[in-house]
Predict the 3D structure of the following.
Amino acid sequence: MSAFKTILYFFLLLLIQRIILDNLFIGEFERPFILFVFIIIIPNLPTWALLLIAFLAGLIYDIFNNTPGIHSFSSVLLAFLKDLSLPFLFDNEDEISLGISSKTFGFGRFLVIALVCSFIYNLSVILLTDFGITDVQDFATRLIFGTLSSTVLVYVFDILAFYRRKEAI
């Protein structure tokens, strides 16, 4: 994936998050996040570059959302865990270097990656927003809803961004 395309995806995800998802009110549930998809789809980079890009992406969203460092921390945590865990989860370095999508990893493995990344991101955002767990049922409901809705949005973005129709011959 080219650098221009990656930057374009970041700004597209930022616009979707800020304009649509941040204004989506679904009761007391946590709003879905899609901005972290940018960290997932970045091809294999050196650790320092991935962490720096994740920090800047989170910082830009924090500035727009007036959340002091919550998404910066969550983005850096996700990038660190992604970089740390992918070589252990998958043997083939060529697959990882192509970038993470359902097209390269398949439906099952991409579902696991999307679900785990969504869980980590939502968990850190909720814990930092609430400064802990006061009501376990409310916390669990927000975490489950945020994780599942974010995972669905990751798949929708993946299908729209990476799948191309085959041309009729």
